[in-house]
Amino acid sequence: MANNVPIGKVVIKLNSLRDLIRLTAFLSPLLGIERPYIFLIHNDEKRVYFFAIKQFAYGYKPLIIYFYHEAKKEIQKKYVEYSKNEVEQIRFIESSEIRDPTKTYIAIYKVKKLNLILDPFKEDISKNIISVSTLSQEWVPKIKFMNLNELVRTAFVARNLLMVQKLSEDKYIYFTGLPAPITGLLIEEFIYGPVFYCISDPPLVGDNLAFFVSYNEIADEKKLEFKLGVDILENAVPLIYVKNHPLGALS
């Protein structure tokens, strides 16, 4: 990569390790990753699990997106067993326990050091790193939907996921098109298309945040249902809870 090519570096903090695992399990096959994995890097203060994606944005500008969660404890097992059945199940295992082809297995790789370009947790003052604010203002057109039904339908038809961020006790932002675009050209990796979003009610199952939203296309009144797990045949979209995003104001 030439030194004069600007590199976008976006770091998105997820609410939980469960969100990171769900995102990795969903995005890996979409991105052509046959053996899903997440990285663990730590020092005396932090234990950070993350999944990185390389893409290109408008103008052929390379972009690295990091999704991460900062954990208090280090997981000693080397793999994650993931299943989205009636209730989503996550189990930390060793390689000898990998035996069920109906489940997704995610490797956990411990890394000691990353170079400055790849490390999402260090400040880089060099001129070839462009800011998140530049990304949000110039590279990502945003389209607001009137209701959550249409947004979920759009995400499901495109086989995409929904990012979710809490605004207040009774309002959440839902958006899709990041990091996998709904529309747009394809140049080696995904190139950015518009991000679609809306503001709606909390995604609750009882008192708990849902892990999926199911969309009923056949019903006379198109209906959404938030769920903790889903059947493989359901029109369901994964929900990934984030603490920040690079899209600027979504109002």
Descriptive tags:
mainly beta, globular, seven-stranded mixed sheet, 3 helices, disordered N terminus, single chain, 251 residues
Structure overview:
The structure is a single chain. The protein is mainly β. The protein contains three helices and 19 strands. It has helices at 17-30, 132-139, 148-157, and strands at residues 7-13, 37-42, 47-57, 61-71, 79-83, 89-93, 104-111, 129-130, 142-144, 162-168, 171-176, 186-187, 189-190, 195-200, 204-205, 208-209, 212-216, 223-227, 236-241. The strands form four sheets. Strands 6-5-7-2-3-4-1-8 form an eight-stranded mixed sheet. Strands 9-14-11-10-19-17-18 form a seven-stranded mixed sheet, with helices on both faces. Strand 10 and strand 11 (171-176) form a beta hairpin. It is globular, with a radius of gyration of 18 Å. The relative contact order is 0.19. Residues 1-5, 124-134 and 185-190 have low confidence and may be disordered.
**Helix-strand category:** mainly beta
How would a crystallographer describe the biggest sheet? 8 strands, mixed
The percentage of residues in β strands lies in 35-45%
Q: Termini distance? A: 37 Å
Q: Order of strands side by side in the largest beta sheet?
A: 6-5-7-2-3-4-1-8
Overall 3D form: globular
State the total count of DSSP E strands. 19
Radius of gyration, rounded? 18 Å
Please work out how many helical segments DSSP would assign.
Answer: 3
Lay out the secondary structure.
Blueprint: E1 7-13, H1 17-30, E2 37-42, E3 47-57, E4 61-71, E5 79-83, E6 89-93, E7 104-111, E8 129-130, H2 132-139, E9 142-144, H3 148-157, E10 162-168, E11 171-176, E12 186-187, E13 189-190, E14 195-200, E15 204-205, E16 208-209, E17 212-216, E18 223-227, E19 236-241
Parallel strand pairs: 1-4, 1-8, 2-7, 9-14, 10-19
Antiparallel strand pairs: 2-3, 3-4, 5-6, 5-7, 10-11, 11-14, 12-13, 15-16, 17-18, 17-19
